[in-house]
Amino acid sequence: MDFTFTEEQQAAAEAARGVFAGVAPDGVPSPALTQGAAVADDLDRDLWNKLAAADLLSLLLDETSGGAGLDAVALCLVLREAGAVLARVPLLENSAAAATVQAYGGPELRAALLARAGRGETVLTVAASGRTGHDAAELAVTARQDDPDGAPANDAGSGGTWVLDGVQTAVPWAYEADHVLVPAHTADGRSVLAVVARGQEGVALAPQFSTTGERLAQLRLESARIPARDVITADGAWDWLRSLLATGTCALALGLGDRVLAMTSDYAGKREQFGHPIASFQAVAVQAADRYIDLRAMEVTLWQAAWRIASGTPGALPASGDVALAKIWASEGVRRIVQTAQHLHGGFGADVDYPLHRYHAWAKHLELSLGPAAAHEEALGDLLAAHPLA
């Protein structure tokens, strides 16, 4: 079997390296220095425009929408580069939301959003944390049809609406996005995805802050009426979007871990104790080697999950087991990597003039976003019990 990336995937990664080359993770102040305020009032618009100009916002879109028609593997290669520089852009959320609309949305919704999202003119994000950050996101919001004609909600010609009520917490980029994809559940237990405009009546935002100091939002829906054309009811849409978001988050964690281990290696090779670089000490070398093993495990499980998502049409192959395994290694691995980096850097690692403290904060945010490894191990065990290996 050939495990090398395709020429198109490698070209996307190379373009991303060029765009992110000038991004400095220590170019914004520490959250501690801003007394709890967000480190930035907006996404990095200059970087966003550069990503759009390099066609990196439309990787997953097909040619009819101005995209490259690539897959989840290509997106994860680009996200890996974004994670390495802590890029303050909704690249993952915008790409995943647009790809879901393309795969599952109706023609009116696709025409309204996709081309503009691929050019960076419309920003999309996703509410995926649920009410508390621990419960299923689709259970945090109820959705009911309000269609006097009884027309199917996803028909392009339907004039009906859906009514949404509930709360989603920790929504990234909610204040900057034009539309938020909100998962919700119906009375009969189905999951739907509503494309909610930020300024729509019945939609309210309240500021929240992540461990990185970035501004998130609590999204409150009170009888928000969503046109039927903006609600995706196709089976599997939310499951596929959730898997793509999780795998993309693993890619961000991998890029962050790569950069942190490189920073640690460079520091340990220069820092001397007793007349020798500390990298030559066995205790230091063993810790660094363990973190390298973590990175390689994070990498191989990431590409397995991304390949599974990219194989065939969305939902054709079950990806939940591979995604769970990637999340286990990413959430545990990125935590161990930054903890070891802080330990080996000593007091220098806590210096706010050195970027390691920002990587530590972002790693904690990614770890919390992915959820605890124990929960994913339990889910993986349930899958193996239901589908025993031959």
From TrEMBL:
It comes from the Bacteria. InterPro entries: Acyl-CoA_Oxase/DH_mid-dom_sf (IPR046373), AcylCo_DH-like_C (IPR036250), AcylCo_DH/oxidase_C (IPR009075), AcylCoA_DH/ox_N (IPR013786), AcylCoA_DH/ox_N_sf (IPR037069), AcylCoA_DH/oxidase_NM_dom_sf (IPR009100). Residues 248-376 form the Acyl-CoA dehydrogenase/oxidase C-terminal domain. Residues 6-121 form the Acyl-CoA dehydrogenase/oxidase N-terminal domain. Its EC number is 1.3.99.-. Keywords: FAD, Flavoprotein, Oxidoreductase. Its cofactor is FAD. One of its GO terms (molecular function) is oxidoreductase activity. Belongs to the acyl-CoA dehydrogenase family. This is Alkylation response protein AidB-like acyl-CoA dehydrogenase. The lineage of its organism: Bacteria, Bacillati, Actinomycetota, Actinomycetes, Kitasatosporales.
